[in-house]
Amino acid sequence: MNQLINLLCAGASLLLVSCGTSGNLSVPRVIYQSIRTEYAQPAVIPENAQIAVTYLFNERGEMQPIVNNLTGDVMIIDQTKSFVIMPDGSSISYYDPTVISEATGNFNSQTGSETLNLGAITDALGVNGRIGSLARGVNIGSSTTNGTFYSKTVTRTDQPMVTIGPKGMIAMSKAFRVAGVGINAHDNNYVDIPFSKASNRFSCCIYYSADEGATYQKLVTNFYVSSNISKNTADGRIGRAFTSIYKEKPDALVENLFMFLIPNNISTNESESSWDNSLIQHSNIYDNYLKGILIDFQ
Q1: Environment class of residue 53 by beta-carbon count within 10 Å: exposed (0-12), middle (13-18) or buried (19+)?
Q2: Which of 38, 94, 199, 231 could be bridged to 79 by S-S, CB 3.0 to 4.6 A?
Q3: Residue 170 contacts residue 67 (beta carbons within 8 Å)
Q4: Beta-carbon contacts of residue 76 (< 8 Å; ≥ 6 apart)
Q5: What's the pLDDT tens digit per position in 199-247?
Q6: How many helices (H) and strands (E) does the chain have?
Q7: Given a cut of 90, is residue 120 above it in pLDDT?
């Protein structure tokens, strides 16, 4: 019930910020999506499991795997053989041999600081809790200035092999954007379809060794969009769009991973996200509510 109230309040809050738009506020539709794995999500992870992968998604459709080493030994992740298969069938490796150099700098008449914080990755994905806290605690380099401009070049390279200490965890080096997920949702509507009939399917393969490289195994997780509902708003009545969604899917709030998206015409300054070396231009705001994670293990 609290979740329902929060969502209705989120829709109502758009009306309060209409002064930030040029003209009348426009909310053309409300979108709901749920994402499932091919198998039923586990209630618990077995004690004899060696690896567990937590999959995080955001409203932009980006998927970030967090790999947990459940063993008491060092685990090796081979990123050259770990990949994502997109809905169109294309395969993208987690390892990219390209060396990237980025020049950064700032100016402050009093004092300034320059830092590359690994938390930018998790912040971009909206990761909270223990995972986000760990990442935000890691900084690479810093400096201060007094009335001068300071710049430096940061060189970033992917590692073909990544090791995880006993009972440790890491985030895979990239979060890939999946077509048809989040703000890229397709227009067709469907509710609770099975994996075999899903048109939007994708998968992730983590290639790992739990015996210091002697042998390797792969953990393949298949995903699909199980429900995709887009409801147009009539005369700006956002609540009616939510009501229509709940009528079609009464259990919308109990999915393991779901999101509501409220596209609108609220103007914002353009921003960019370069944590994965790609620029993302935002011309408007997508108010959203996303909850849940998906897990796989072996």
Answers
A1: buried
A2: 94
A3: yes
A4: 161, 162, 163, 164, 208, 209, 212, 213
A5: 999 999 999 999 989 999 999 999 999 999 998 887 667 888 899 999 9
A6: 4, 20
A7: no
